[in-house]
């Protein structure tokens, strides 16, 4: 089964060569096509690192942490 990070690793060269080469074939200058492909690849990498960042094995997943857990750390004033 393909997981998210396997998909990202496959899409990085596809973005660089596929998008860059495809844009060059349709008539865009090679330098511009490589820049566009690189920006797409960088966006994929940034999404994998910061939006769906890896968590340690067995570590907390921020999507499942409830607000009540963070509210219980505050001390009530008397």
The best one-word shape is elongated
Mean pLDDT: 81
N-to-C order of helices and strands: HHH
End-to-end C-alpha gap: 55 Å
**Percent range for β-strand residues:** under 5%
Question: What is the SS-derived class?
Answer: mainly alpha
Transmembrane segments: 7-26, 32-51
Pfam families: DUF8015 (PF26047)
InterPro entries: DUF8015 (IPR058328)
Keywords: Membrane, Transmembrane, Transmembrane helix
Task: Describe the structure in your own words.
With 78 residues, the protein is mainly α. The chain has a domain of 50 residues. 63% of the residues lie in helices and 0% in strands. The protein contains three helices and no strands. The termini are far apart. The model has no long low-confidence stretch (mean pLDDT 81).
């Amino acid at each position: 089964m393909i997981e998210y990070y396997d998909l990202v690793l496959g899409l990085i060269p596809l973005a660089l060569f596929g998008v860059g080469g495809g844009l060059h074939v349709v008539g865009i200058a090679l330098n511009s096509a490589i820049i566009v492909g690189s920006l797409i690849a960088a966006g994929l990498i940034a999404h994998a690192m910061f939006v769906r960042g890896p968590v340690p094995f067995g570590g907390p997943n921020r999507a499942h942490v409830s607000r009540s857990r963070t509210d219980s750390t505050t001390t009530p004033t008397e």
